[in-house]
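Per reviewer request, we include the raw input and output of the structure prediction for the construct analysed in the revised manuscript.
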Amino acid sequence: MNKIILASASPRRQELLTQIGMEFTVISSSMEEVPESRQPKQVVLELSEGKAGDVFKSLQEKEKGSSLVIGADTIVVFDGQIIGKPGSRENAQEILSCLQGSIHQVYTGVTLIWQGGKRSFYEKTDVVMYPMSMEEIKEYVDTGEPMDKAGAYGIQGQGAAYIKEIRGDYNNVVGLPIGRLYQEMKKQKLL
C-alpha cells in the first residue's frame, strides 16, 4: 500500500499512528453512527467497518488500488450499558458518578479496507477507576476534557488521576489498539 488513510478526525488516533512512525492522511467519515446491534463488540465492529467503507467508497477508482483505509470506533460499557460521549456537563457528571469506584470496559473496533480485502477486529480493556468525590467530578468536568470522550474521561489527560488499574491494552482506551493494528497490517502484508 502506498497511501494509508485514517477515517477519523480523532487527534488521539492520529497521535498513536504518528507515535509508531506511520505516515497517513485523514479523511473523516460522514456516516451516521447508528449501529443495528446492541452487543458491544458488534457495535464497534459495525461502526468501524461503516466508517472505513464510507471513506473507501469516496475515493476515486485510481486511488483505491493504492490505498488502505483504517476505520475505528471506541465505546465504554458499564454494567452492560453502552456509555457514549456526554451531551452536557450534567450528563458528564452523571457518567463519572457511575464509573467512579468501579470497573468498566472499553471496546475499540478497527477495520482495514483495501482493494480486494477487508479485515476487522476488536480489543476489550477493563478499566478500574478510583472513587471520586462529587467535588472532584465537578472540577474535572470544568476542565472541559470529558466532553468529547466516550465515558466522559481521557486516560491520556487529566482523567489519568482517577485510573487505578487497566487490564488489557492502554492504547485501546486512548482510542486505537496500535500494537494490534500494526500486527494485523503486517499479517495482511499491508506494510
